[in-house]
Amino acid sequence: MGCDGGTIPKRHELVKGPKKVEKVDKDAELVALWNYCALSQEILRRPIVACELGRLYNKDAVIEFLLDKSSEKALAKAASHIKNIKHVTELRLSDNPAWEGDKGNTKGDKHDDLQRARFICPVVGLEMNGRHRFCFLRCCGCVFSERALKEIRAEVCHTCGATKRSIAQSEESEAYKSLFTTHSSAKRSKEESAHWVTHTSYCF
């Protein structure tokens, strides 16, 4: 077969099997969803806002998008349903004391601590890293884990005491209505689904 030195090639050297499909690193995907702005792809920094579909944005990126519609189409698609600033909610997030952030050492080196989440649930202490479901209350912007809202049922916010309103008493956009199964766009692909959940049929 033309091999030097009289060597005999093995089967795996002659027969090429199907190419292995590269799998997306789940941890890297979670880091992207929970640490980077869905619009600008920059790291999330306060003030952080969330749309009615549960995507996270830097507030300044949303304002720039609303003022300048000529943004890059690939990125603008993530915010195409945001028509004005009222369609996003500014989040009141609880800092994680274990997160080291972007602290630098004496040599000036800098790193982002991606092993720990920047924010936690203020009630049960779960890290907001994508492994646990989180909800934000639309009336005040406070953020909690779904576990906290299920274990400690209350009609008011656990942090600021704001009262929730029913959907019947509020005017909601089509983007928010699309989260519920009764909407015509209820069937969405996995790529179109957000990494948040609708906790109850109430508008918090």
Automatic annotation (TrEMBL):
One of its GO terms (cellular component) is nucleus. It comes from the Eukaryota. InterPro entries: Rtf2, Rtf2_RING-finger. GO terms for biological process: DNA replication termination. Pfam families: Rtf2. Interacts with DDI2; probably also interacts with DDI1. Belongs to the rtf2 family. Replication termination factor which is a component of the elongating replisome. Required for ATR pathway signaling upon DNA damage and has a positive activity during DNA replication. Might function to facilitate fork pausing at replication fork barriers like the rDNA. May be globally required to stimulate ATR signaling after the fork stalls or encounters a lesion. Interacts with nascent DNA. This is Replication termination factor 2. It comes from Pipistrellus kuhlii.
